[in-house]
Every structure is written in structure tokens, then in C-alpha cells.
Amino acid sequence: MRGTPPENPSDAELLRAARAGEMPALGALLERHRAGMRAVALSLLGHGPDAEDAVQDAALTALRHLGDVRRPESAGAWLRMVVRNACRDRLRAPGHAALLADPLGGPPAAEDTDPARALERHALRDWLWRAMDDLSPTLRMTLMLRYFSPRTPSYDRIAAVCGVPVGTVRSRLAEGRAKLADAMAATAEAAHGDAAARTRASADDAVETLAAAEAGRFGELAAERWTPDVAYYEGGRRVGGRDFLVRGMEGDLAAGVRQRLVSAVTSRDTTIWEMDLLSPPDAPDHCPPAVAWLMTAKDGRMHRLRLFHAPAAAPTRA
Description:
Structural class: alpha+beta
Order of helices and strands: HHHHHHHHHHEEHEEEE
Largest sheet: 6 strands, mixed
Radius of gyration: 21 Å
Number of strands: 6
Shape: elongated
Oligomer: single chain
Number of helices: 11
Helix content: 40-55%
């Protein structure tokens, strides 16, 4: 049973309560500093949707990285720094969001060896993904593309791969963020699965898929792990089914193209595999440098696939 928070809690008290899974405490902390966060965004990006999006991006970043705040009494300054970095990333790469994998521009949180902080991070991550599973597949895919991909696509690219206008992407993101907050509040007391284990299993599936393809068993694996009516889409248009996809992979391999897993992220029925595309040595420009597999599942088997070609990840900041 959680205790009753103080009547006028400090930032440190709100942060500690939020780390313990109390959604109202996180909401109170963000609301307390929203004006300052918005002022930072406006000073760097001016009035417009990018500034508002930067504040929303920072709020979601804060949720995922509450365990990284070393001085709870400085939570307000930390939130403003997250907004500032999100804005600067937008200025460096117009139309792109800040990458949530490293929102502070420093070393990965995984390098922190404090067991208590590690447990907090894991609990928050599992809570977040439990709530993500409650979203509709459409909202879940849009949020995953925007916030959980190491090669965060622009609104234009998300619109192209989903086959919808840019305005629809923006409205889906706004709706998804709001519903995610509601879902997190509703699941604060629930048991949360191990999101890291699910992601590791998905990464293993990706590696096995590529190995099967190179061994000439891609068709066999597809028959086992994909639904019989699996469909490949470009934008909003169905292009082909399982045979089409198998022929495409076999053709790439015959041309000397190989894929290498970069990352995997997965929810209940939505998965994104990020791959490097390796052109043959004698034709280094044969294919784009990277591709993402955007998949939705039905009864545990892949049912819908989109391929999203993206530029290679930017070099890590020093």
C-alpha cells in the first residue's frame, strides 16, 4: 500500500514517488515545470508545433529515464535540460525527433552500476511497455517509430511508410501520448512483464531469421513463423504476400546483399527490427545503408510487414 504524499511535496518527493510507480506524482512534477520546459522550447524553436512536440518528447523521455536523475532536488533543471537537448537535436536534423535512447547526450544509463537505480529503470521500462500494450496497433506503431527507434524517422517518413498524411501522424502522436498516460495510470498497480526479456527474444528471432535466409531456409522459416495470408505493404497499399517476400530476400542474397541486426524493439503484437544493409564489395552503392522491418503479429505469427529504408545512424556524439 503506498503512503499518502505530502500536501505540498518537493520536487525530490515527487520524483521518488514517480519512481515508485505513482503516476499522479509524475504528472504533478511535469505540470509544475511545464511552463519552464515550454519557455526553453520556445526560446530555441520559436512558436509552432515543433516547440510543443519537443516538450511532449521531453515528457516521455523523462518517464523513461527517471532513474537517471542523480539529484532529485534538481528535477526541474534536469527536465529543462532534456527539453534543450531535444530542441538542439531538432535544429541539427530538421524534422527529426530527439533519440530517446540517449536523451541527455551522455553515457548510456546502462553504465550506471548502482543496483537501486538499475531496478528503478527496469521497473519504469516494464511499466511503460505494459501500458504501450494497451494502445491500439495503429497508435502503438506510430509511437514506436517516433520514440523507440534508434533511427528515428521524420514525420514525413512515418507518413510515407504508414500511407497517411503528415497531419494524421501528428494527431496520432498526440492521441497516443495522451492515451499512454491514461494507460500508465490505469496499470500503475498491475504486474508488469519483463520488457527486456521480450526484446531479447525478438532480437534472437531476427538473428535466426537472417541466418535461415543465408542458409537457404528463408521460405521454410516464413512458412513456420508467418501467417498463410501474411501481406507486405508499401504505404497503405498491399504489394504482395509470402512468396513475394521470399523471392525478394532470395534475390537480395543472390545479389550479394546482407543484413545485420542493429536493434529490436517489440510490444505485444508490434515489432521493429532495425538492420544495416551491406552492399556487395564490388557494388558499394547497390542498396540503401539501412532498413527497418515494421511488423504486426496475429496469434503470435507475423501478419503484416512494411520495410522502411532509412539513412544509417548518425555518429555518436563525443
